[in-house]
Amino acid sequence: SIKLNNILKKRGVGLIIEITERTPFSEHYETVATLSYLRDAGMLIALDDFCTGHSSFKYIQQFAVDFLKIDKSFTHKYIKDDISRAIVNCIIGLAHKLNIKLIAEGIETERQAMEMTKQGVHYQQGYLYSFPVSEEHFMSEKFISRLT
């Protein structure tokens, strides 16, 4: 909600709405209008599971997205598998050309992190950085102090 977004902004926490590509969603006016409304309210839009679902390129053509999330099925195999490396490099090149930021999912090793950074991936997430945490734990002083 807009109210939640405003509260988070005051605390210095941005809100990113993730749209998963694994589930098809409507391209109807209502969907476009809702995403536009959220963007106008200051929320960012991320396309999750990029290249694993229904209409990757169609989604980035029709919906203004701020982030592409590279699925862990590609990042896990990046170092050892030529096909996965080629797919990830294509996603990175496309995002750079379209000025869309990148998030690599499933980063578990320093080597994976270094490779993604070297290739120009803006952000990373995975067990190397943190296991998933509850909202209560995230908002606790103990967890926030770990991030700084």
UniProtKB/TrEMBL annotation:
One MF annotation (Gene Ontology) recorded for this entry: cyclic-guanylate-specific phosphodiesterase activity
Superkingdom, natural source: Bacteria
InterPro entries per the UniProt record, alphabetical: Cyclic-di-GMP_PDE-like (IPR050706), EAL_dom (IPR001633), EAL_sf (IPR035919)
All copies of domain EAL, residue ranges: 1-146
Classification via PROSITE patterns: EAL
Leader sequence segment: none
Pfam families: EAL
Sequence similarity: Belongs to the YdiV family.
Summary of subunit composition and partner proteins: Interacts with FlhD in the FlhC(2)FlhD(4) heterohexamer, inhibiting its ability to activate transcription.
Protein name according to UniProt: Anti-FlhC(2)FlhD(4) factor YdiV
Source species of the chain: Salmonella enterica subsp. enterica serovar Kentucky
